[in-house]
Amino acid sequence: MQKYIKQILENLDIIKIYNQQLLDSTVVSGIKYNSKEITNGDIFVCLSGQHTDGNLFISEAVSKGAAAIITQKDVS
């Protein structure tokens, strides 16, 4: 069953969406927490851990084809 970004984000408390048009048209292939594993169409979830911050890997995830980024920090 295909899931669109909008369906996955429905239950999250979203503060900012940078490209509203993608919500209804972008199919998600998977959800990943490791930027090294991102493939085209995945959602990258940035986790802040004891040793590193997932936000440091947003550029890498986007360059590998991440369809969306979920983070608790402002990335403007």
CATH class group:
Alpha Beta
Number of domains: 1
Beta content comes to 15-25%
Order of helices and strands: EHEEEHE
- Tally of individual helices: 2
Based on helices, strands and strand pairing, what is the structural class?
Answer: alpha/beta
The overall pLDDT average reads 87
Spatially, the strands of the biggest sheet line up as 3-4-5
Categorize the overall geometry.
globular
What Rg is obtained from the alpha carbons, in whole angstroms?
12 Å
| Number of strand elements | 5
Uncertain stretches: none
Q: What level of helicity do the residues show?
A: 10-25%
Q: So, CATH architecture?
A: 3-Layer(aba) Sandwich
Distance between the termini: 33 Å
The main sheet comes to: 3 strands, parallel
CATH homologous superfamily?
A: MurE/MurF, N-terminal domain
Give the CATH topology: Udp-n-acetylmuramoylalanyl-d-glutamate--2,6- Diaminopimelate Ligase, Chain: A, domain 1
What report would you give on this structure?
The protein has helices spanning 5-9, 58-63, and strands at residues 3-4, 27-28, 30-32, 42-45, 68-70. It has a single domain (3-70), classed as MurE/MurF, N-terminal domain (Udp-n-acetylmuramoylalanyl-d-glutamate--2,6- Diaminopimelate Ligase, Chain: A, domain 1, 3-Layer(aba) Sandwich). Strands 3-4-5 form a three-stranded parallel sheet. Strands 1-2 form a two-stranded antiparallel ribbon. It is 14% helix and 18% strand. The chain is of the alpha/beta class and 76 residues long. It is globular, with a radius of gyration of 12 Å.
